[in-house]
Design goal:
It is globular, with a radius of gyration of 26 Å. It folds into 2 domains: 87-119 and 158-250, no CATH class; 251-445, no CATH class. It has a 3-stranded antiparallel β-sheet, with no helix packed on it. The chain is mainly α. Helix 9 (168-187) runs antiparallel to helix 11 (209-230). It contains 22 helices and 3 strands. Mean pLDDT is 85; it is low at 443-447.
């Protein structure tokens, strides 16, 4: 334990205190009010459209079509523009690091992202008879007909495929570049000086003009030069070369299991595992969840097996198995008392009372099951999803949703998720059981 603690603590502290990773984590968290609202709208539409369709109750959908359309509008203004929401939050949080103008920094980040993604939308439509269409669209700007199909090009718009989850990695890179330049120049006083008599509300934006202009021109020159040299947009290159490979790696069985084990390992030593792993959980698995949300909204195949919500749906309630084992077999009065006090919070995925009251933190008896139960739950859940026994997570459910129901809602009401959740609770209980009995008092101290 001492060796593990001495090697892990420095790493965890560096990750947890790295200011740019903290800004990244806080930016993902900052989008939650809007993202969760969009997720709720999508979940509500599943009630009104998808479930009735399974049982032929289309009259329910017809009756509430007005609400379905409202939910679609909410989704369009939330998850569909997730990258825009994130980039503004990132600009604000980077400005907090440098203690400079947060509002201007957020706007600079947003503007820089729009510069980097271009303003042209292209679409190819396959056609069987192109001869007639050639005559019809001859001379029409933005429309061309070839033997391969109909090509549409619209300029002056924000491409929807760039401002959703596809644009996250570009938002991260461009956001950091633009805002760091802006903030450093602000702190170096490369600003327009105004008389002291000018009100602060007017002076502050004026001071940001020169740093903001330099930051935006740097991004514009970079984007323009990259497109001229490579023939493709910077965002397309980042998506293909960085985002897709990283998301692909995140769907590997061993990666998914390793993330669960590392999160638990940090928690065991009293370090908030969720905070330490947040850049990976939100920056990779969170993007996978947004992509699944968008695919579900469009009734397309879900692109990713595992998301950050998959852990909440099937893994993070392992503590419930510990409490069941304690109620079932433990004769340790302290364990039983903590279990009584902790059962209600645990039913809403709040495990800290048990974690620090039992404790499981730095408890050598519970070290093995504390790591092993989430490992097995993750492995079983991943394989069940990969083999098609349970639907992948396609809904962003609030983290306080009770176990079992969490998986049911997160998979868009797949009844098989109920069975998998119960199986995982059994796994956790069985793994914890022998170690709980090891903590029983012996001899005269036994109850």
């Amino acid at each position: 334990m001492d060796k593990l603690q001495s090697s892990l603590l420095p790493i965890a502290n560096k990750i947890g205190n790295q200011r740019f990773l903290v800004a990244l984590r806080d930016s993902f968290i900052g989008t939650m009010p809007v993202i969760m609202t969009g997720s709720l709208a999508l979940l509500l539409n599943a009630f009104l459209v998808d479930i009735p369709a399974q049982f032929g109750l289309t009259n329910i959908t017809d009756t509430f079509q007005w609400l379905v359309e409202i939910d679609n509008l909410v989704f369009k203004g939330s998850i569909s523009i997730a990258a825009l929401l994130f980039i503004y939050c990132l600009g604000v949080n980077v400005a907090k690091i440098y203690k400079t103008d947060e509002l201007s920094s957020g706007l600079v980040a947003l503007s820089a992202f729009v510069i980097a993604i271009g303003n042209t939308f292209e679409q190819k439509i396959a056609i069987s008879d192109h001869t007639a269409l050639e005559k019809l669209f001859k001379g029409v700007s933005g429309v061309s007909v070839t033997k391969d199909g109909l090509n549409l090009e619209v300029t002056g718009v924000l491409p929807g495929t760039q401002i959703n989850s596809n644009g996250y990695f570009t938002a991260i890179l461009i956001g950091f570049l633009a805002t760091i330049i802006f903030c450093k120049l602000m702190n170096k006083n490369w600003t327009i000086k105004l008389p002291e008599t000018v009100p602060p509300a007017i002076a502050k934006p004026f001071m940001s003009i020169l740093p903001g202009a330099i930051a935006l021109y740097v991004v514009a020159i970079l984007s323009f030069g990259f497109e001229k040299i490579t023939g493709s947009l910077l965002i397309d290159w980042i998506y293909k070369m960085l985002q897709l490979p990283l998301l692909g790696m995140s769907q590997n069985f061993f990666t998914v299991v390793l993330i669960a084990v590392l999160t638990q390992l940090f928690w065991f030593f009293g370090i908030h595992g969720g905070n330490v792993m947040a850049p990976i959980m939100e920056g990779v698995f969170g993007i996978a969840l947004l992509a699944n949300l968008e695919a579900y909204q469009k009734h397309e195949a879900l692109p990713y097996i595992w998301t950050n919500a998959s852990y909440g749906a099937f893994v993070w309630y392992a503590t419930l198995g510990l409490l069941i084992a304690i109620f079932w077999q433990s004769r340790n009065s302290h364990y039983r008392e903590v279990a009584k006090l902790g059962i209600m919070p645990v039913m809403f995925n709040i495990g800290e009372p048990v974690m620090y009251g039992l404790p499981t933190v730095l408890n050598p008896i519970l070290f093995i099951p504390f790591l092993l139960s989430p490992l097995l739950m993750t492995a079983v859940s991943y394989l069940a999803t990969a083999w098609g026994l349970v639907s992948p997570v396609s809904q962003n459910v609030t983290w306080v949703m009770p176990p079992v129901l969490y998986g049911f809602f997160a998979t868009a009401f797949d009844w098989r998720a109920l069975i998998l959740s119960v199986i995982n609770i059994v796994i956790a209980t069985v793994v914890y059981l022998p170690f709980v009995k090891m903590a029983d008092p012996v001899g005269k101290n036994a109850e």
